[in-house]
Amino acid sequence: xxxxxxxxxxxxxxxxxxxxxxxxxxxxxxxxxxxxxxxxxxxxxxxxxxxxxxxxxxxxxxxxxxxxxxxxxxxxxxxxxxxxxxxxxxxxxxxxxxxxxxxxxxxxxxxxxxxxxxxxxxxxxxxxxxxxxxxxxxxxxxxxxxxxxxxxxxxxxxxxxxxxxxxxxxxxxxxxxxxxxxxxxxxxxxxxxxxxxxxxxxxxxxxxxxxxxxxxxxxxxxxxxxxxxxxxxxxxxxxxxxxxxxxxxxxxxxxxxxxxxxxxxxxxxxxxxxxxxxxxxxxxxxxxxxxxxxxxxxxxxxxxxxxxxxxxxxxx
Length: 316
Fold this sequence. Notes:
The protein is α/β, with parallel strands linked by helices. Helix content is about 35%, strand content about 30%. The protein has a 6-stranded mixed sheet with strand order 6-7-8-3-9-10, with helices on both faces. It has a 4-stranded antiparallel sheet with strand order 2-1-4-5, covered by helices on one side. Strands 12-13-11-14 form a 4-stranded antiparallel sheet, covered by helices on one side. The chain folds into 2 domains: about 5-215, 3-Layer(aba) Sandwich (Rossmann fold), CATH 3.40.50.300; about 225-285, no CATH class. The chain is elongated and about 75 Å long. It contains 10 helices and 14 strands.
């Protein structure tokens, strides 16, 4: 399947700062794509180019095989990290205005606004001024404004910012439902637990360059370290050419916890057979790195040596 969006060798600089240095991405249709990176990595610059707020210095963005152009704006919804609503307008009037800017008729826009306000159980907000709403309520209004015209590509920059856990979960469910209905979502966030839970694919940008991308499951498989956690009862003595004990803890009443790494060529079954011959095994599970752990590792791996030394010195 052709990607809905492709970034091809995109470069962007501001004065003496290089924001994007040859970034290429393929974003699959009807997926949730996590765009990750530390502050200042270049994520926002890429988003601004995709939304045509700014242009690339070189390279190109392709939308469904076509070079990105103004006609594609109506097919894109963008929720920026820095929210921007007209505080002196009523909620219903503002949503209607923004929907008509996106090409909806007054009748279609009114019907969709009513549906979304009912879905969020906030129909009474329609006649309230934006400035009278809490930050979380304003966030909901802006989310509705972003998706009201049913764009095929939705870009969400820190969509959970300002939400309590209940409303964050509500927004999460709506994002998953939008994907189910056919939308593609680019999801930029620092909340790695959300990435782990929701994203199909991710790309990590660090210091203006892409340093990692691919399906989440494939990336986690690549970063596995053949390490297993073992819990049980008995006296475990691991002296074996195929295994290495990374961590051992004796617990009360003869129980223990170990982290054991397999050497090349050894299998989990080999380790399990060895353990069963020595102790009661109560738990045996592979230690799979989280996206947060992978994120930190790749960022550190791509840091200049001078910055690595500075960070190490700061930790001493």
